[in-house]
């Protein structure tokens, strides 16, 4: 059982860090720590609690501290609530993890509240069909997440990791061939920047991104996390047409 260390910083925020000893952290590359921060305290009542998992960042020492800049990156736990009717009415279901089949929990989805995390929703079970990328916020009708209908049958969450740049390379041919261009910012018109609307392969180097079928962030959506996509079907598309893309920065 890990030892518990309590400390209170100068702002009066209580932190709880699970740890063992410094030698343990230096030996282990896979261990994660739980970090709880009280963000709103009135008297003896705590009104707001944020929970994080501390994960060592690239090239950073594998130990953690409650004070100053934490050596690791902070991964915030995800939470989403689905509602059968518009404006957050009707039967609801709260979720904090991936779910391959949501039909047992609700029959339709017309509004959503995302409290934290990045969520990818799918029209069909087993992470298939139309994709919808949602970040923190309220969506009172399915049109607000650019939904084609009120069907949400599966979902995945990708927790926020703070810090770090964004980089993505797109290619005009499969298997990273042909013309290429690297991006670090949003692009509202691939045609204007890349001189082509066809993206056949993609290498996401850093950060989470959303590709859109049409310019100005419209049409079908495709969630992109770091990795190699040798053909457009690797990110779930049925054709190479790509109108725009942008970074996922709000969680």
UniProtKB/TrEMBL annotation:
What keywords does the record list, in alphabetical order? Eye lens protein, Repeat
What does the function comment of this entry state? Crystallins are the dominant structural components of the vertebrate eye lens.
Q: Indicate yes or no for the key word Repeat.
A: yes
Which SUPFAM superfamilies did the record assign? gamma-Crystallin-like
According to the UniProt entry, its GO molecular function terms are: structural constituent of eye lens
Protein source organism: Oncorhynchus tshawytscha
Family indicated by similarity: Belongs to the beta/gamma-crystallin family.
Mind telling me what this protein is named?
A: Si:dkey-57a22.13
What GO terms describe the biological role, i.e. biological process, of this protein? lens development in camera-type eye; visual perception
Q: Which residues form the signal peptide?
A: none
Instruction: Please list the residue ranges annotated as the Beta/gamma crystallin 'Greek key' domain.
Output: 78-116, 117-159, 166-206, 207-249
